[in-house]
Amino acid sequence: MGAAVGGTLAIVVLVPFPDAIRAAAFAVVVGLAWHAWGKISRTRAIELDCRGGFALLDAACGWREGTLRGDCFIAPWLTVIRWRPHAGRFDRTVLLLPDMADEETRRRIRVLLRHV
Q1: What is the SS3 assignment for 71-103?
Q2: pLDDT (tens digit, 9 = 90+) per residue, 15-41?
Q3: Burial level of 7, CB count in 10 A (0-12/13-18/19+)?
Q4: Whether the Cβ atoms of residue 48 and residue 41 lie closer than 8 Å to each other
Q5: In angstroms, rounded to a whole number, what is the distance separating the alpha carbons of residues 104 and 111?
Q6: Burial class (CB in 10 A: 0-12, 13-18, 19+), 56
Q7: pTM, two decimal places
């Protein structure tokens, strides 16, 4: 995530914008990065089941349950889990990066997501 934020900030600094727009864009990028980092760091645990059930332990809200969506992205270096909370209207996304779990756990999650 740091590389993406750094690259975006480099674009904001290097592209010839007026100073007011550059300052506003810089502030927006930093604010969105701060918000994204807070969302990522709040997730404490996830639970998956073979019937498409999903539960997420959020540091702010406790356990939230929902169902897995069919458009999850699965790769050895990144897993993007799409889910929708029960009684929710919008899908949510959970990123699983390589340093968030050991290799065997990530492999089991990828296998489960492929078969759901």
Answers
A1: CCEECCCCEEEEEEECCCCCCEEEEECHHHCCH
A2: 888 999 999 999 999 998 888 777 766
A3: exposed
A4: no
A5: 11
A6: buried
A7: 0.64
